[in-house]
Structure formats: C-alpha cells, structure tokens
Specification:
Number of strands: 15
Strand order of the largest sheet: 2-5-6
Number of helices: 17
Shape: globular
Strand content: 5-15%
Mean pLDDT: 76
Radius of gyration: 24 Å
Low-confidence stretches: 146-153, 197-210, 403-413, 468-479
Structural class: alpha+beta
Helix content: 25-40%
Distance between the termini: 56 Å
Largest sheet: 3 strands, antiparallel
C-alpha cells in the first residue's frame, strides 16, 4: 500500500514467510559480514559506496594491517574480515541468502593419519592455517545434510512457519497477518495513523531493494584494539540485545522490537527461535579472552569420521561425534604493541613518525592538543559500539571526551548505574526471586532512579553467569 499524495512511499507490504525469513536473517549477520557483503555488492568504485558509520573504516584498516606482524595468525585476520554466523545452517536454507553462506568451505589437516583431534583443526581458509602436527590444513571437508536443520518438524520455514503471511511497514515493523487482530490495531502496530490517499500496489522484491573538542586519535595497546576488531564478529541481533534495542538504526530497531513484542511464538519455526534471534551467540572460539562485553558462544558444527572407509564430514546435528572448536590462543592482535586508532576507528601501528605525520596531515599544532587518559569499561565499550554504527567519529561521539571537562562525570555515571542495578539484584536475591531485567527495571522505577535502557538486561545476563555474593561484578578492558 502506498500514499501517492505524500512523500512516504510505502505504508506496508504483505509478504510470505520466505521473505520474512530473509528480513529476520539480518539479525543473525555479524557486523563484519554486513560490511563485507555491502562492499562486495556496491564496491569502492561505485559513485556512492555504502559505508556503515565507522565500521567500514575499521574493516578497511584491519584489511590493510600486515598479518605477520600484527595478528596472532593469518586465520585470525580472515576470521575478522569474513566472520561466520552461528546461524549458518539456517542461512543456507533461505530463498535469498545475502550473506552467501553456501560458499563457505571448511578444511582440515591434509594428513589423514594425523594423531591430533580433527575437531580442533578445522579452518575456513585453505593453506593459511596449520594443524597441530605441522601440516597445512588444505583438505576440504564437506557438510552433509546442510539443509536438514532441526527446526521443529514439518510445516516450518527457516525462522517462521510456512504459509503464514506477514505485514511489514516501511520502517520494518513486522507482525503476522492474522484475522484475529482488528485491522485498526494492526495499522497502529505498524505505526500507520493516516491512510488518506492510499492505494494498493503489487511489488516484486529483488536483491537491489535492499577548538572543536574533537578526538584526533588514540594511542592504545593490543587489548583495546582487540576489543575494537572483535566488534566485527558480533551479530546485528546481538548488538540490538546489548544496546537494549536502541541502536539508532531505526528500521533494525523496529525489526528487533517486532520479534520481541509483535510476533507470537506460534508463528515462528520453533519455540526457541525468538530467543535465538533476540540474543544470537557467537560461533565457538570467536570471543577474545579479554572481551569486555557480556557475549557468549555456541558450537555450530560437528565433526564425523569413519576410519575404515577413509571418510569424514561435517554436520550441523548435535548427534554427530565431536564439536568443532576453533582454538583461540587469546587475542586476535599481537602484543605487547602500541597502535594508533583514528576517530573513525582506522587502526595503524603507532610510532613517533606516524604521529607527527597525522598531525601534519590534520594541520594541527602541538600547542592545540591536550592529552586525556580514558579507562575503557563496559559503559564506554557500549558507547563506542553504538557510535560506530552511525558515526564516522566513533571515539568522539562514543566517549564524549572534552579536554575542558574532568572525566569524573563519566565514571560517576557508570558507578551510579552499576550500583543501582547491584542493589536491585541484591534485593531480588534476598527475597528469593530470580534476577531478571524486568524485575530490576520495576525496582528502579519504584525508587525513581533512571538508568540507560540496556543496563537492566546486561546486568541480568551477567548475574546468570556469576554468583552475586561471590563476584566483584566489575568490568575492565585491562588487567
């Protein structure tokens, strides 16, 4: 339905479950994969290349870094530049897989008689990784029954039920098209309040529809750079979860809210799909050991082997033999080493000559520069993540640094939010109640205390992993 009198072109579209599945799949894509797909589709030579805040420059800077000197292994670099999704099995079943997951290949040790565990020696990069025995991982292992993913039985699509149609607004609010819901309420849920001048159109969707107080640069060790590059591995739905559905990407926020509030579980392919889409995990082995964000991992593939027939394969079924584990030695980038991070998150090696070169290029006098030391914790990490989605000045907008101001207000805000959630959690624990985001919010509202929207959910998730009484529950990027 369109409005021909006004600039708003589309009121809503009625789509089938296949198209709804494609839209929902966006939440499962890692940020690095999204940048890669857009660069491949639109390229640098186009008149209007598509950039995502500071993430595109972070990605480009990462691609330009020397693998030998700045990454633990070449595999680590390629993992960041082309991260897989923990939903690869589901993505392979889509009618339109924008992530091109079907092209992903897996390799293992070329020596069949290798004594080391194959489930610890699987790579998506041929001849760039070595087995623990020293041989190159250059023998391809195929995935058998890739499309046969357990999603609740017959009648199910990838994320939604087959034969269920959905209504989608122009800003990606989505809800099932069911007769039981009054039409007026449906239009309101889609954010439509005025239908004057509306008329129907049938549309076929194809692939194509889819003193400034400015921070000059940061000098940081490998821990901070590791945190930055690891942002590329986080699925979009995971970003929405971390930021409480408030990423400033309005359409994605609406799509995420639709899963939470507008789509009943009975219209989804399985009972746990809603939770998986709202809080997608990283594939096992993707988390840096010093990750400051409350993320979690899950096993994606399993390794099967028949020695008598010299046959091995990979499967998405947990009934298979051994889980495929990506062995991570620690950080993605090497250290100890200092790096220069520009405001748009471009990472380069730090040296005196490079610092002088940047200042000369920016035409900034040393007398106009003031150094500010900033500690990066959970609050700052989330702010940088949010700013990187929409701003090419992610450090300035994320950290909100002003040389004329003390950094104490930032610390005070962090401490007040943290202490308030801590007290709320302790009250719930003393009353024998589960610590959930909703209950923390209720207590804070009763106490007339306002915190950032993502704090209760993050704190509740943290409490799931740690004992409130035994843990300090503190966050920090550095030891």
């Amino acid at each position: 339905m369109i409005n021909k009198q006004k600039t708003k072109v589309l009121y809503f579209a009625e789509v089938d479950s296949d198209f709804a599945d494609v839209l929902l799949s966006f939440l499962t894509l890692p940020l690095g994969k999204i940048v890669r797909v857009l660069k491949k589709r639109y390229g640098e030579d186009q008149e209007s290349p598509v950039n995502i805040g500071s993430l595109t420059t972070l990605y480009d800077g990462l691609a330009n870094l020397d693998s030998v000197h700045f990454f633990s292994t070449e595999v680590d670099k390629q993992t960041l530049l082309n991260p897989i999704s923990s939903f690869d099995a589901e993505l392979g079943k889509l009618k339109l897989d924008v992530s091109d997951s079907k092209s992903t290949k897996y390799f293992t040790c070329g020596n069949w008689h290798c004594v080391y565990s194959r489930s610890l020696n699987i790579s998506i990069h041929c001849d760039t990784g070595r087995c623990l025995c020293g041989s190159m991982m250059n023998r391809e292992v195929i995935i058998i029954n890739k499309s046969q993913v357990d999603n609740g039985g017959g009648g199910c699509g990838v994320f939604t039920m087959n034969k269920v149609s959905f209504l989608i607004s122009d800003d990606l609010r989505m809800l099932p098209n069911v007769a039981a819901v009054p039409i007026v309420q449906t239009l309101r849920n889609l954010g439509i309040t005025d239908t004057d001048g509306a008329e129907l159109r049938n549309v076929t969707f194809g692939f194509s529809e889819k003193s400034t107080n400015k921070l000059l640069f940061a000098q940081a060790g490998e821990d901070f750079v590791d945190f930055l590059v690891s942002l590329l591995t986080i699925p979009l739905g995971g970003v929405e979860c971390l930021l409480g559905g408030n990423t400033c990407l309005t359409s994605m926020d609406n799509l995420y809210a639709s899963i939470a509030d507008l789509i009943n579980e009975k219209y989804l392919a399985s009972p746990d799909i809603k939770h998986k889409l709202m809080n997608p995990k990283l594939p096992q082995g993707y988390m840096s050991k010093k990750q400051i964000l409350p993320l979690s991992e899950q096993v994606v593939l399993y390794y099967c082997r028949e020695n008598n027939q010299y046959k091995d394969w990979l499967s998405y079924s947990s009934a298979a033999a051994d889980p495929v584990i990506r062995y991570a030695e620690g950080n993605y980038v090497k250290g100890p080493k200092m790096y220069m991070v520009s405001d748009d998150l471009t990472v380069t090696p730090s040296s005196m000559s490079s610092t002088i070169s940047v200042l000369n290029e920016l035409k900034v006098s040393l007398s106009d520069i003031e150094e500010v030391e900033v500690c990066i914790g959970l609050q700052e990490g989330l702010s940088i993540l949010k700013a990187s989605l929409t701003s090419t000045s992610a450090l300035t907008n994320g950290l909100k640094i002003s040389p004329s101001l003390s950094q104490q207000p930032i610390a005070e805000t962090l401490n007040l939010n943290f202490v308030a959630c801590t007290y709320a959690a302790l009250v719930l624990r003393d009353d024998g109640m589960d610590v959930t985001a909703e209950k923390i919010e209720t207590l804070l509202k009763a106490a007339n205390f306002n915190v950032e929207s993502y704090w209760p959910s993050l704190f509740a998730k943290l409490c799931e992993k740690r004992n409130i009484e035994e843990s300090n529950l503190g966050f920090g990027l550095f030891d």
